[in-house]
Amino acid sequence: MFVLSLSVLLLPLGCRRNSFPDVPPGYHEFAYVTNGRSNTVSVLDLVNVRPDRTLRVGEGPTGISVNPRRNEVYAVNTGSGTITVIDAAANRVAATIGVRRQPYFISVDAAGGRAYVANSGSNSVSVLDLDRRREIAVIGAGEQPGLARISPDMRTLVVSNRGSGSISIYSVAAYISPNSAPQDTPEAPQPDPHAPPMPPLLFRAAFPGCPGATDIAILPDSSKAFIACSSGHQVMVVSLASAPNSWAVKQDPVATSDHLLTMLDVGRTPVHIALKPDGGEVFVSNFGSDSISEIDTWNNQVLGTYTIGTKPVHGVISGDNSTLWVSNFGSDLISIYSIDDGELTGTVHTGSAPDALAFSNDEHLLLATDSRSGDVAVIRTRGKQGATLFTILPAGASPNAIAIKVIQPKH
Question: Can you tell me the distance from the alpha carbon of 218 to that of 221, in angstroms, rounded to the nearest whole number?
Answer without folding.
Answer: 8
